[in-house]
Predict the structure.
Amino acid sequence: MRYNCFIWILLLLSSLVLMFVLAPLAGMFMHTGSSEILETVSDREVLDSIWLTIWVSFAATFFFALAAVPLAWLLARKTFPMKSIVQGIIDVPVVLPHTAAGIAILGFISRDGLLGKAADAMGLSLINNPAGIALAMSFVSVPFLINSARDGFAAVPERLEKAALTLGAGRSRVFFTISLPLAWRSIITGFVMMFARGMSEFGAVVIVAYHPMTAPVLIYERLSSFGLKYARPASVLFIMVSLTVFILLRMVTFKKKEAQAAPDAEA
Amino acid sequence: MLKLKNINKKLGSFALTGINLEIAEGEYFVLLGRSGSGKTQLLELVAGLTAPDSGEIWIDDRDFTFRRIQERRVGMVFQDYAIFPNMTVFGNIAYPLHSKKLGRKEISDKVSLIAEEMNITGLLGRYTHNLSGGELQRVALARALVNSPRLLLLDEPMASIDASLRDDIRRTLRQLHKKGLTIIHVTHDFREAVSLASKVGVIHNGHIIQTGTPDSVFSRPVNKFVARYAGIRNFYRVRYRHDGKTWKAFCDGNLVIDIKGDNFPGDGLLILKSDNIKISVSKPPEDEVNCFRGVIREINPSEYGMEITADAGEVFYIDLTINEFKALQITESSEVWITFAPGAAIALPGTG
């Protein structure tokens, strides 16, 4: 294939962007010896923080999905007063400084806050607690799930839902047998994005819970207490685990089309 | 069977207005209209997918205007079939039966029966991605019919299939009609209406402008729009006068046409069907009325043979078979005589 000058310029610019993403990561991996990584793998504190990060982010994504997916359907299908304002509110966490988001969450879950008071009445403190971490992670990451799921529902042809209604299905059956299965790919993509974004969150999480330490907080703590050399192996391990989980979840999303067309819900 | 009483529905800048329609049991009603005329919106109102702003929808003498879709016993086939891609053909056809909470065996039996009727038994286990347009159409029909609806709604059922498959679908639809099913079929295709309808309606800009048997609508269109739908191209703006003996229509181009009938308005539009106009090279007898001398301007092949455009002070479009055309031995700029009976001219009120 012959490339003209314009295509070469595009390729060059694209390569620069890719290198900008890959170079720091590659540098970090190259500066970390295998013995340091092996040592970190046996470091209980690091392993606990990674495990905490993964399960809290997953649980937060799962529970928020139960409410966020129906909200996404409403945004895709219904018109209602102030819909654009609702859409704007959903995107607010994306543009907020994450430390400011953390402060907002802290106010909400502290003993003086609405949720904090309710939790306190049940003998639970959300600060320095995995539940508080989950809320902080969700606050900054739930827009990814809602927006992706909304786009997925919007891409489902409305006439399929109409056809199901004319075939005697109720609204809920149409949702579970037509809308949800056909928007599944986008919902999973949103789920993965929210999960990944939650795992990587530092700013909001560190304000609501320094302990127990999530991996990003632990990496920061090691950097500020012991320096780059000690922070790097934990970072490498966390990145490796995150990438593995991320790739596994993406593989579920991008399986062959036939797999996406799931077996009949009802046949 | 179905009565629409003064239905009004606003849809953005478009509105269905004053829709009154009555469809009898067992009738095959074809609603003709261009895209954007409101055909599909009207079907969706009948199906219950949307509710009218005002007016009533009666099915079998019961007011269904605001009743749930599920109670209407109406089957609908969408323009591009709306087959669920996440289910097999079996799953698609069984879908409405699950709504009725039937047992597995009963569902399986009903699906097999309708699949056999629609000649798609071999497709039941397949997903729908690789089915042809004709196969998808049959699946959509089977799915709409499996619940034995009282009324079948078809939205442009032949728009997305090859011409070669249309005859098959047409045959299937005729068979369904013969079995007594009431059908409303919307289309933009005049020929579909002629070949299937026992009754037709023409919709334009959200109004139904004429209903009746195909013969009555297409031979006596109420306005220029319906006439155009019937393939009529000869339109003349005229003034009607009575000369004491007969009615005459005075065209803008100075032609005076004898017409049959009574009580014509002062001004109007006169139409002539192309196949009612005769053409000859020799002068007809002196007593022949509506006999005009003209010149051939264009000769073009048409669906029926040849279409002749002749100028006799007004332009006439005339359809000839190939044999008629050969017998006349005419070419462009030949002089000819154009004749038609007074009864062939149809007077329309107004100019539109």
